[in-house]
Amino acid sequence: MAEPSIFFAEVNERQGVFHRRAFLLGGFSGVGLVALGAQLAHLQLIETERYTKLSANNQFNFRMTPPPRGLIVDRNGVVLASNRPNFRLMVAKDKGVDPAGTLKTLAEFVPMDDGRQARLLREISNAPRRSPVQIMEDMTWEQFSAINIRAPELPGVTADMGEVRVYPYGGAFAHVIGYVAKVNKSDLKPTGPNADPILLNPGFRIGRQGVEQAFDLDLRGKPGAQKVEVDANGHEVATDPAGDIKAIPGKEIVLTLDADIQNRAEEIFGSESGAAVMMDCRSGDILCMYSGPSFDANKFVRGLTATEYKELAQYDHKPLFNKALTANYPPGSTFKTMVALAALENGYDPATTHVCGKVWFWGGRPWHCDKAHGVQNLHTAIATSCDIYFYQCALAIGPDKIARVAREFGLGKEFDIGIPGQKKGLIPDTAYKRRAFPKDPVWHPGETPSMGIGQGYTHLNPLQLCVQCSRLANGRKALLPRLIKSIGGVERPSGAAVSDLPFKPEHIDFVRTGMAAVTGANGERIAHATGFGQADLGLGPTLLMAGKSGTAQSRGYGGGTGVHDRNGAWALRDHAWFIAFAPYDAPRYAVSVLVEHGGFGAGASGPRARELLRIALLKDPEIRAKIEHPLPIPEAPQVDSDPDVVDPPTPAAQAVQAAAEQQPT
Amino acid sequence: MTVSALTRPGERDRLIVKFGEIDWMFCLTLCLIAGAGAVMQFSIAGSSWSPWAGPHLARFALFFAIMIVLSLIDLRVWFALAYPIYGVGFLLLLAVMVVGHHALGAQRWLQAGPITIQPSEIMKIGMVLALARFYHGLSGRSAQLSWWLLIPAALILAPSYLVYKQPDFGTAILMAFTGVIVVILAGLSWRLIVAGALGAGLLVPVVVMFGLHGYQKARLTTFLDPQADPSGAGYHNLQSAIAIGSGGLLGKGYGLGSQAQLNFLPEKQTDFIFATLAEEFGFVGCVTILVLYAAVIFMALRTAYLSHSHFGRLAAAGVTATFALYVLINGSMVMGLAPVVGVPMPLLSYGGTVMLTVMVGFGLVMAVRVHRYSEVTSGKGSLL
Hints:
The complex is a heterodimer of chains A (665) and B (384).
Chain A: H1 8-46, H2 48-59, E1 60-65, E2 72-73, E3 79-91, H3 99-106, H4 114-126, E4 133-136, H5 141-150, E5 157-166, H6 174-177, E6 180-182, E7 205-207, H7 210-214, H8 216-220, E8 224-230, E9 236-239, E10 253-255, H9 259-269, E11 274-280, E12 286-292, H10 297-302, H11 306-314, H12 323-326, H13 336-345, E13 354-356, E14 359-362, E15 365-368, E16 374-376, H14 378-384, H15 387-397, H16 399-408, H17 430-436, H18 448-452, H19 462-474, E17 484-487, E18 490-491, H20 505-519, E19 546-552, E20 575-582, E21 589-595, H21 601-604, H22 606-619, H23 621-627, H24 651-662
Parallel strand pairs in A: 2-10
Antiparallel strand pairs in A: 1-8, 2-3, 3-4, 3-5, 6-7, 8-9, 10-17, 11-12, 11-21, 13-16, 14-15, 17-18, 19-20, 20-21
Chain B: H1 9-12, H2 15-21, H3 24-44, H4 53-71, H5 75-99, E1 101-103, E2 106-112, E3 115-117, H6 119-136, H7 140-144, H8 150-165, H9 169-185, H10 190-211, H11 214-224, H12 235-247, H13 258-261, H14 273-306, H15 310-334, H16 352-370
Antiparallel strand pairs in B: 1-2, 2-3
């Protein structure tokens, strides 16, 4: 054994120091561990509640579930706008997601060319992280399920079922109901209802026109939330149905429209440009408001291509305008009803006669009429629509009195029907002339004859003419039009809760009788009556239509007559008006029809007004009961004992017998 | 057969006797901790042996065998290899500066064929061995205060600096601390200790201001105010605290820790495994694990205490100090008492490198225990 290099005493001292200090090391370690234990106790025993809450907040997220948009239905509950399921495909930018590769993979399932992929790729990279970008809508069930099976291998891809707006009648209601479309950047507002985060939901659509726009907030509803368990990357792990917050669907909006009448209007307008408005002349409810040609609102929901939009916007028949509210034209001869009423109200003797010889010289120039009507009084002049009579009649009363009557009938007025976009048009008077023509502020007498036949400055829209006609038909009340019957079950004020017209009922009756004479509804046969023969609605001898035609010049003719017939170029033809109500003796429905460049009013618009009134009456249960009055129950036929004498049964008796057989007792 | 100081030297060299001298209670405790680690890794993998629990157990089994083999190696062999191991470790640290592999912005590994070598881990054992070897031949008086102390200072600072440069701040601190602890245990004068502590206290702000990398500084500032940026740099601290705190007394239940299972907890299988355990087994589970760690430290320190050779004492105590530092640093970090430094919880965390270091270290501790009566010499008569 080698010499120990260190002496024992030293060795012992060294050992002693080590032992003492090792003891200290153990002590320090122990203290450290106890400190850890104390911190554990602090976290796990004292503050555990706080951390449990934080942990739960980490773990659960609420994912917004969009509410179903409110339905829009007609007065009878026929659905005009609803929602259908829509299989959507979305991709979100996220950690570990390669959008280009993902799109390439998705292109195996759904058609997607390179250009579209590039466009989507840009959209995805511009979108915030984890906010999904819609790749495709309306996938087939096969595509949807195929992608859902592969979804676990495709991070960032979601295929879900959303809802999309659908308009089952396509075009017929497009102008009234409008449509919904994608949210634009300009729709998003920092405050107010459009600050709602629901607008950022990829499937969300905002109301763009008509009812959809005007009642967007009512239709929108309140979004719900789905409680989902997420991991640290925000990926969904599981759902917790118990924690879901139910979405509150949008309110249902009931319109006063009748789908059958509206659809018939679309049919009878065909490719013609124009509008038809029908009101119930007892309540003011608008039963029909059609503007043609129309467009398929469903295409707007999907989003139009630039070409599609250009075609619609540039077509000279202007399908994108709601002509029922915006087409402002001179009312033509329909205005004579107002002139006549103004005359009566101002003491004009209806028996006053004027002779019409096709041309009338006054004020140093000739004034023309359609035909040489001969001797006319106020009543016959309405029926024949004699311009020469009304030139003189209007001159006798003056513009301001005519204007007052016209305004009382709603002409030149804007009505609160719920949807925006009415063009008021104009009823001129001397005050207007002063205001609008500072260089020539005087109303010249020569301007009055034009006003008397509804030309000149006077410009009105089909809704106003319908209101006018329904007030005439009602005869008493200054009815207001109502388009929205109820919102979410809350009824809107009726259009009949209004004051009476400030005119004598017998004067209005006189005008109505004149309108009946136009069509011959009152049995009168006045020579040259403009709408003669149009009284019959094909519903029997008691249900007849009264009306008044009007032909609005589409341009000045330099004193000559207009292009009434349908032979001229479309854009040069006159606009055809017709206002009518039925049944003549107990009016229920009033209609105004405008056919742009339709030519002669009674020719283009009259039959359309007639058909619409016919449908309206057919839909009316009381009228229907009258038409189909049940056959009286026949008495049991007496069986004659003598077989030799057999009366041949009359056709009527045969029908009675057949009916009896059909209903066995 | 129990061994005592009076047992004949030849008798003590018999393999079966050595085998009996291994502290089997100690081994059992290690197995329990490693087993708990596997249980947690099984849970957070969604009740699956892969990718963590299986390899963890397999590795532990292998390293356990290595530990047993190492514990049978004569302490004189350890003694003789102390400087060579240190030297090799130092050279490898230099090599890593030149050709090391990049990982997360730091250069820590050497790739030698299929084997990845992390020289800083070799150095952890190497430094303890070298210091023990040095102090074994140094008188108690010189160990207190003498110019000789420049040698251990160099032995500690040189490798620590290299590791710090990698940069691996956590390991560098751990290494330097271990070295300092060995120096103190060897008998450093109290006056020097106090002076050093004061000096270090003054130096810390300077190091923080100028010596730290951006990410290291961020970790420190977020430690001081973890709520300031909860989804950014403070995320680790906060999520870990949430995991532990929400565990409560008894935990959320096995496999039900939402923080870990849903990936809110970062590094859940490695550095933050303790938080995972805290979430699923609560205060009771955590205290149990801490008690096991305390038992390991106590038993290892007792081995150092019982050793008859100064080399053995210091080596065993040095290894124990490393282990204790691991536990305390990781524990404080997970519980929000210390900034986030990349220090795993030994045996509990997934990962082979630290586990190998710890098990090799414990092999040394067991060798000290088995050969606690052996005399190791520093002179010419030594083995080799």
